[in-house]
Amino acid sequence: MTWSDWKWQLQNRITQLADLETKITLTTEERDSFAKAYDQFQFAVTPYYLGRIDNKDPHCPIRKQILPRAGELVRKQNETDDPLAEEIHMPVKGVTHRYPDRAIWYISHVCAVYCRFCTRKRKVSTPEETPNRSEWEKALDYFRGETKLKEVILSGGDPLTLSDSSLDYLLGELKKIPHLNQIRIHTRHPVTMPMRLTESLNSVFSKYFPLYMVTHFNHPNEISDETKFYVMRMIKEGHVSIFNQSVLLSGINDDANILSDLNYKLISIGIKPYYLHQCDEVFGSSDFVVPLEKGIEIYRKLRGFHSGITIPSYVKDLTGGGGKVLLSPDYLQKKTDKGYLFQNYLGDEYEVGH
């Protein structure tokens, strides 16, 4: 196996401090935080994605997404382990069914890279959280019986850590359910391990048109020549429609010029910017949170000044499972002492903190 083999990339992920220090020079804070943070959330990065880091820049936007920092060990009052209340809407293991027409199916606990701002830090990298084969069947039976469902979203972890044959089976079974209108796959592999988008995987995906994929680029530096090659080949051969959701992250992409560059580059390789998320209030995320006032101002600089197809929707997933609210200035109701009032998709008002 070689560098361009995705299984080699997974098998050779850097997971330990000693191995990491042979690859890059760590700051004192990064070194001191590593062991303490590891107790809360494991560390892993593919050789490919680690190679995208600028070793000379301690503020490198890729570096800051993957290396533990002291702020990750601080729990703010508003932070929780399960900010989107996914666990309380879980009728069968691995399935969150909160909205009437769609459900999320967690079919893997493994990611190529463990992002430090991950919403699912409570369960990602934990093997017992992965549904087994018999639990797959229970989930499929649940989907068959829920006739109001229009969409199933394969998520994790990263669903593309499964084998091609497993994905072929799951997609085939889902496509047989007559009331399902579409299937979506959420994956960060195009960012962290683009060589996973193999010709054999494209052959599987091409059998299940239309198929929708949502990936997760946060910075233009994440788009490499390999990204362009594998993504564009998948779109052409796998007949997959690809969308991107970014998270607005302090010191990483909280700049209108950076986001504009990212979104134009995504469009140029066939990926549609879909969501720009306000960072979820998950334990240890406070260093990444961009103040809402700044986020609104950044979004204001994008809308109306750049091509419409490059503009994602700026949203906040409400803590506690209330769903998404649009953070566009158009949906701003008023400012309060604690934050801002926005309308959600039903027209209900929710207060979002600063």
TrEMBL record:
Its EC number is 5.4.3.2. Keywords: 4Fe-4S, Iron, Iron-sulfur, Isomerase, Metal-binding, Pyridoxal phosphate, S-adenosyl-L-methionine. It comes from the Bacteria. SUPFAM superfamilies: Radical SAM enzymes. The modification N6-(pyridoxal phosphate)lysine is found at residue 324. Pfam families: LAM_C. One of its GO terms (molecular function) is L-lysine 2,3-aminomutase activity. [4Fe-4S] cluster binds at residues 111, 115, 118. InterPro entries: Aldolase_TIM (IPR013785), LAM_C_dom (IPR025895), Lys_aminomutase/Glu_NH3_mut (IPR003739), rSAM (IPR007197), rSAM_sf (IPR058240). Residues 97-312 form the Radical SAM core domain. Transmembrane segments: none annotated. NCBIfam families: KamA family radical SAM protein. PANTHER family: L-LYSINE 2,3-AMINOMUTASE (PTHR30538:SF1), LYSINE 2,3-AMINOMUTASE-RELATED (PTHR30538). Belongs to the radical SAM superfamily. KamA family. This is L-lysine 2,3-aminomutase. It comes from Leptospira biflexa serovar Patoc (strain Patoc 1 / ATCC 23582 / Paris). The gene is kamA.
